[in-house]
Design brief:
Layout lengths: L14 H4 L11 E8 L17 H10 L5 E5 H7 L8 H9 L7 E5 L10 H4 L8 E4 L5 H10 L1 E4 L7 H10 L4 E4 L3 H9 L5 E6 L22 E9 L2 E8 L3
Parallel strand pairs: 1-6, 1-7, 2-3, 2-6, 3-4, 4-5
Antiparallel strand pairs: 7-9, 8-9
This protein binds NADP nicotinamide-adenine-dinucleotide phosphate.
NADP nicotinamide-adenine-dinucleotide phosphate binds next to strand 1, helix 3 and helix 8.
């Protein structure tokens, strides 16, 4: 055990995350989970993240999308949080262009029910090369699947449910190398249970209480996955932890 001492200050909160080498794994992509939890691990307050997030966490949440080829998210989070198209500050867009990436990452929503608002801006106000994607399964309701195809790029990844490995392989086939998963806990837990999470960036917010919803909900019987601590950053009372999957 040792005491952590205060190190050099970080002028760009994204810089420690940009410096990471993310090598696509066997499915062709690297998967980072980016989540915030309270001191008791709660992932939401009143069904949303807003009160849980601090100003430095909210800033990092927006910036972390700079690293993504695609932002992957469960449908309940989209419904609860009212997701819209990704926008980034002009200087970050310029940096992405210089790196040969699209101006902003596309969003991919995981859903079996396809109970989504197709008139929302994330479906109607995205550039043609970054249409929002819906990752679903073959047994989805045919009428809703037709509606989804009209509004979004549809990725079929499983028969009765979205299989996490098939979902990631489908995204990788579309050229997405870095997948940033913004939750929610149920979908993140599916990735964890399938041992497909390469990196977890976890903000610890200095509050307790909120919803009985942990940051990751793994299905019963899922194996335990080891992670290695890669960095610890602090801004005021907010802690930023970065872990990578331990050696396989
Ligand atoms: N603290 C954080 O960092 C953070 C991050 C994100 C969200 N949240 C909070 O978490 C809550 C939402 O999270 P959640 O865990 O309830 O839901 P979620 O993971 O966002 O979404 C669950 C939904 O995703 C779809 N899904 C998940 N696995 C699937 C599979 N294998 N096959 C097919 N579809 C699948 C289903 O959509 P359908 O129902 O459409 O079939 C399911 O209902 C909200 O309160 C939100 O504010 C917190």
């Amino acid at each position: 055990m040792h005491v952590l001492t205060t190190g050099e200050s970080v002028s760009d909160p994204l810089a420690p995350y940009v410096a990471v080498e993310r090598r696509p794994g066997r499915l062709g992509c690297w998967v980072m989970g980016h989540m915030v939890g309270g001191l008791d691990g709660s992932a939401a307050i009143g069904g949303r993240v807003g009160q849980l997030s601090t100003a430095p966490d909210a800033e990092l949440f927006r910036l972390m999308r700079v690293l993504a080829d695609v932002v992957l998210v469960g449908a309940q989070t989209v419904r609860a949080e009212g997701y819209g198209p990704v926008t980034l500050p002009p200087e970050r867009v310029a940096a992405r262009r210089a790196a040969g990436k699209s101006d902003t990452p596309a969003i991919a929503i995981v859903s079996r029910s396809l109970d989504l608002d197709w008139s929302a801006k994330m479906f109607t106000h995205t550039p043609a090369d970054r249409r929002t994607m819906v990752v679903t399964c073959q047994s989805a309701d045919p009428d809703r699947l037709a509606a989804a195809r009209g509004a979004a790029e549809v990725v079929l990844a499983g028969t009765d449910r979205v299989e996490p490995a098939a979902a990631l392989a489908g995204l990788a086939q579309l050229g997405h190398r870095v997948v940033v998963c913004e939750g929610g806990p149920t979908w993140l837990g599916e990735l964890v249970a399938a041992d497909l999470l390469d990196e977890l960036c976890l903000t610890i917010s200095p509050v307790m209480g909120g919803d009985p919803l942990p940051v990751s909900v793994t299905p019963a019987g899922a194996p335990v996955t080891p992670f290695a601590l890669r960095h610890v950053l602090a801004d005021g009372d907010t802690l930023f932890l970065r872990y990578e999957r331990g050696p396989r």
